[in-house]
Write a structure and sequence with these properties.
With about 625 residues, this protein is of the alpha/beta class. The chain contains 19 helices and 16 strands. The radius of gyration is 26 Å and the shape is elongated. This is DUF4484 domain-containing protein.
Length: about 625
Amino acid sequence: MASSRRGQPSLSVRMPSNQPLDRPPIDALFLIHFDVKAGYTILWKQNAPGIDLEGLVEYKSLPSGLHTVSEDLIYFVHDSAHAGLSAFVNMPCDEEEARNARMFAVGVLVPLSYGRLGRAWRHAEGLKEMAAKLAEDRKNTSILEEYWVANREKSGNDNRRLSGETPVSSPSLNSSPFPRKTHSRNRSASDGASLIPPGNKLSPYHPAWSLTSLLDKFGPLIFPIHRAALLRKRILISCHAPVHEVCDFVYNLSVLSNIPLSVTDILPGSASTQRLRPLFSIGVHDIPFLMDDFEASKRPRNDEDAIDDESGSGWIACTTDSILAMKDTLWDMLVTLPPDYSSNATERVWPVVECPRGQPIKATQRDLRRFTTLKNGLARLAAASAVPSTVPESPEEERSARRFSTQSSHIVRDPRDDAVEKVVEPLTWAAFAYNGYMWWASAGEQLRQEQQEEAAHDASLLADFGPSMTMPRPGSRSGQLSDSLGSLNASNRAPDGSGEARFELAIIAYFHRLTTQILSVLADLADSQDEPYTDHDDDDEGLSQASGERAPLRPSDSDLEPDDADAIRVDSHAVENMGLDVWSDTDALFIRELSILYFGRPARIEGKGVEVCGVRVC
């Protein structure tokens, strides 16, 4: 995958064409057995020269808790140069010495030069089949030999390009939903969204298929997690086995937090635009690496170092080892997922987000409204792009269809929907007073106008993805948060497993446009406040001469406090244009941290309120 500006790899999803799927070459293939006496044991392995497997891949391939599941797929990163994928199978048997279970994992290492996961998911089906066969007969290693010979990296393939892999981009789409006031440069979109030509698809095990499940799982909490990812925080997801879907979440959150190339043009040259590193599944054996990485984050870095070395930058990973969640110096944000059985609870159980440990993070009221609008927009997209059902023509297509249709199919009002209030900040007294005053002062007209502007902002983030992307009615809650987004996608996805990905790419485009919106507004403010504006009106010339010099319309740096001299002043209208909550202290803190990270300048947030005769009343 080609590198982009300032060393940031392209993070867009790539899709194969109608050509047969080919697999990326592998640098290692191994078979791991869990023995109740000997522990993890590598029974068979083949690897390229210079790659060390012993004492490493066993623990990465078999995270804690896998004994409770029958099968799983595990993604991990090995030696910072390879992506790993292992297929685990837990097969019952009559062997009492093995505690009536045979646990095997077949894994591969793929060079990261083929992408953030090396497109390792293309090996998933083959690895699962081999793991199932070897669980029945562990001596049948000939299938491993054949797979190694067929898929190993061969000399002369350093620049090999997988067939059908083309970047997802759309120069025709405007990545910024609103015209920029201070920049006249015309930029093409690189937001991961395209008007997908017929025939472009995602392979069956591509992590992007879990995007709707990601939104279902987190609800409005996806937005504070997305903001933490933009700040390149160290994000740890604590979960239970199986980990396949959570590894997909790690991949997708890394993609959603990508800085679009169109935005890097408006950022200062010194701004850090490194990607959020996906580490996928980690465990206690990765603690030394995480500690070294934390120390690396404290060292000063220049642009050249950032290009060649990602150590010390933000990352996102998942773990089944609770001890990592207890070591709060290793991470900045902890996301604790409820166990799978909690889905049957009477009241919806949401993930718990902490940043730092012990300080819960909730979605804002603005996040809740935005999530409702996003869900309604995706529902309209699903209805617009619905396809007629067909009968699978082969067992492989039937397996793909099952893979694509794992989500629930209820589209009804669920009483558990009310539990969303537990993960949303309550309405502040200031917001309550402002809304009440504006309703009284303008007979509700001002509030209706603000709601319409907000709805237009949100609707524009899903523009160009369907004929019915109309603006939702202000305050509408027609689409309940408990309705499964996955069911919308599954119901309109072809059961033949054809892999059309318009729905998933709309989600990626939405978040990339949201990122563009936030950073573009802040960049405009930074540019407009770089130099003081001097009034050159001829009518005021006499006044200027009388004062001895022309007076700037904004104070010079010497007139400001030291901390405010270079600060970017962000008023309430700018906060609204970013799509953030003007009443939320957490969003104000986010803007301050964002300004420091990407512009190297502090930010001063000016709150929203009402003044009567010069006296602020709310």
